[in-house]
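Build the 3D complex.
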Amino acid sequence: MSVRPKVLIVDDEERFRTTLHKLLAIRKIDAAHVGSAKEAFSEIANNDYDVILLDVKMPEMDGIQALGRIKRENPQIEVIILTGHASVDAAVEIMKLGGYEYLLKPCAIDELVGKIESAWERKLIRGKKTLDANS
Amino acid sequence: MPKILPSDPSRIYILVVPLAILLLAVPLWIYSGLGPALAALVVAALCFFVISSLVRKVVKAQEQERLLDLQLIQSQKLAAIGELSAGIAHEINNPLAIIAQEVEWARHQLQAEKPEGKSFAELKDSLDEITRQVDRCSEVTHRILDFARKRDPLVQSTEINKLVEDMAKLVEKEVSHAGICVIRQYENDLPPALTDPPLLRQVVLNLLNNAADSVGQNGTISLETRIPDKGKIEIEISDTGCGIPKEDLNRIFDPFFTTKPPGKGTGLGLSLCHSIIIRLGGTITVQSEQGKGSAFTVRLPLDYNSHKSG
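Done.
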């Protein structure tokens, strides 16, 4: 079990994800970043992630579709949606698909870190409950 | 829609009255024993009465139709602009997010270098200013998205006087130092209304804020609630402020229209009020005279559901 959350940033804006990666690193959050949902699936298949930061508007597959697939295949991973366009319909859809949180860009880095930590905490509690149930 | 009546309804008299006199007055003269002049006069009076009442009804219907057309055009315009601006807001939010992060990173780098001297202080000041301007832009884009976002009203029993008073107290606190006087004239027997309180609160607060901005110093803001017709309520917020120029009156509910200085208003407040009130089944109107003040009147159905089913 990691002592800090392991985060995957999925955003097609390269500068956004590289700077966010650096900003998370100075807050001791270990993060990786990819530019599309397709790359995210292969990252998730090969590495353990606690929290995924997912953009909505991306080429090929959008964040909502990606969220559906991630939660189907890896329900233990918490997903935070980071988008420039908020709508009630999208928020309802995200909650239905099991998304943890929905944040509107631009959002303060401290707020984002707070959300990542609480999503991670939730993942840990859920993991502990599953262990207790199995033992 | 084709008009049934000519544009000037009085022309109907010229067509119908002689015809009616011909058809009705002749039998009346023959069978009732009245003189021809008297029979014609009786029929003419009868025609005048019936047609007047018909014309009044038609004129009223035409006026209602015209108002509905205007409301429809305004709603369509708002919906189209809302959709367009939400798309633009989204496109702006992404670069804003990058700018905000770059500033954060630059600030971190500066801290790591432990900089000293005037140029570093200026650099730090520039970064702070960029942050402030990003916040300002994101406030605008977030408000645009709020504006475009539609949700169905959540109806609750609402004490309108209390709702208005809560907002009045809030604004009164803010403006008391400017010597602005807030006068209340609440209808005592106002029944509870079935409407969406948070949406209505937003409208009242917006109108009160605008009134306070318009009054500036030592003016008066008046609040009135009343029952204009059965099943309706009215909230009037008026001020003794600068008023609205005539040429701006039919643009004030348009999105992004503002007379406030740059950075002070997004121009979305009144259009948001308009779109909320339409969603609540009501109307919002304004009367204003430049240099004397403005009065905004919100008229709502007492029961939102009755408007929806009606």
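The longest strand of chain A covers residues 78-83.
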